[in-house]
Design brief:
The structure holds two protein chains of two kinds.
Chain A: E1 2-9, E2 17-24, H1 27-38, E3 46-51, H2 60-63, H3 77-90
Antiparallel strand pairs in A: 1-2, 1-3
Chain B: H1 8-16, H2 29-55, H3 63-88, H4 95-103, H5 120-142, H6 148-176, H7 180-199, H8 210-213, H9 221-238, E1 249-251, E2 256-258, H10 265-271, H11 278-291, H12 293-299
Helix pairs in contact in B: 2-3, 3-6, 5-6, 5-7, 5-9
The chains are: A alpha+beta, B mainly alpha.
Chain lengths: ~90, ~300
């Protein structure tokens, strides 16, 4: 038996989303189990199954540094303030 | 690899702050055990509920209803699968161990699956009253559940339970608009199922209930139970049925129904596997498990190559 992670996608919308997991004796039965457990009422029309052993899991500490890089964002507040100042100067 | 917390109070502060725990986090053992036991009981209940539903496939009146009972059976067994997967991933018991404990009477399942469904009316009462109570409990967990994998799987379970409840209401209304015999059968079922359904919510939550403290449950048992009473008592009466509560009263001031004192002895019995139908239910499940052993053997290859 192997554990498979289940990913579903709806037609034309959204990205593939993780729906859960299942265990099955082989790939063929895993597909049947996924259809019967996760897509009973058209919850998606595309299906990916990934053997859990093949999922690469990143360490949260490895990903964390990118959460603290404000220079990669611009919320527009400074631009709005400058626009306002410019408008007021010409009035 | 995983997130860790230096002590329980730091972990609790994380939960209070809306933190979501993932399967590979190094969660405190107390939390892991409590959440696991809760999910295991939910999984067992879905599985036992599916077997109950299965009992009625040959006896269901009419092809349309029979097809919906088939679909519901598959839904419930499917929910069992999904939940056993989430529970097994917590690393305390494997799915096989959980099923073996269930068959040995060592682990719990909901009180309502310890009673006998006597007639088709009982199945209607179960689908209407019990599924509504189960759905309300699950929604209260889904709302704010701190264990991510459980919360995500509950989303799909709740959407399917919604179909079951509407199916129950549809059947109940057909009976309410049916013949006197049909109404009599349903009233008999209601007399049997009103109290077990109400007791599904459990006794009043204890002040120190860790499931509330750790944001698994979002609402106290008595609050959920009262909401169910306020909805179903007037609904059943409006369809012409009698609520089997001798001390039932209505407070004009608060506009609320009160079912009177609740006898919790029947619930306690079911929790100790001593309900009216507990032994037969567990035996049926065990027989199904034993009779399908050959299929599991073939699938895991242990006998296939012999």
């Amino acid at each position: 038996m192997a554990i498979y992670e289940v990913f579903l996608k709806k037609d034309g919308r959204d990205e593939y989303r993780h729906a859960g997991a299942l265990d099955a004796a082989n790939d063929e039965l895993a597909l049947v189990m996924a259809r019967e457990s996760y897509i009973r009422r058209a919850e998606g029309d595309r299906l990916w199954l990934v053997n859990r052993e093949h999922v690469l899991v990143a360490d949260p500490d490895f990903i964390a540094p990118n959460a603290d890089k404000p220079h990669r964002h611009h919320d527009g507040a400074a631009v709005a303030a400058r626009r306002k100042a410019a408008r007021e100067a010409t009035e | 690899m995983s997130r860790t917390w230096k002590d329980l109070s730091t972990f609790e502060a994380f939960l209070d702050d809306g933190g979501i725990v993932e399967v590979d986090d190094d969660m405190p053992d107390e939390y892991r055990n409590a959440v696991f036991t809760f999910i295991e009981m939910h999984a067992n209940s879905e599985y036992m509920g599916g077997l109950t539903e299965r009992d009625w496939i040959p006896k269901t009146p009419g092809l349309r209803h029979k097809m919906s009972v088939l679909a519901k059976t598959q839904d419930e067994i499917g929910h069992g699968h999904l939940l056993y997967m989430v529970a097994a991933d917590m690393g305390i018991k494997t799915r096989t161990e959980m099923l073996e404990d269930l068959m040995a009477g060592k682990s719990r399942f909901h009180n309502v699956f310890h009673y006998k469904a006597e007639t088709w009316g009982d199945q209607v009462a179960i689908a209407f009253l019990v599924d509504a109570a189960a759905l309300a409990s699950q929604q209260a967990v889904f709302k704010n559940c701190s264990y991510g994998p459980y919360r995500r799987i509950l989303k799909r379970i709740i959407s399917e339970e919604g179909f079951h409840m509407r199916l129950g209401e549809d059947r109940m209304m057909r009976i309410a608009q049916g013949t006197d015999t049909q109404k009599e059968i349903f009233q008999g079922a209601l007399d049997r199922w009103f109290w077990p359904a109400l007791q599904l919510f459990g006794p009043d939550s204890k002040p120190n209930d860790v499931l509330l403290k750790w944001h698994i449950k979002s609402e106290r048992n008595e609050v959920l139970r009262d909401k169910w009473v306020q909805k179903f008592v007037p609904m059943l009466q409006s369809y012409g049925f009698t609520v089997p509560a001798p001390d039932l009263s209505y407070d004009e001031e608060t506009k609320k129904w009160d079912v009177g004192p609740i006898d919790w002895e029947p619930l306690k019995k079911t929790l100790a596997q001593g309900g009216p139908d507990s032994a037969r239910r567990i035996e049926t499940a065990k027989n199904a498990w034993d009779e399908s052993a050959w299929a599991r053997d073939v699938l895991d290859g242990s006998k296939a190559n012999a």
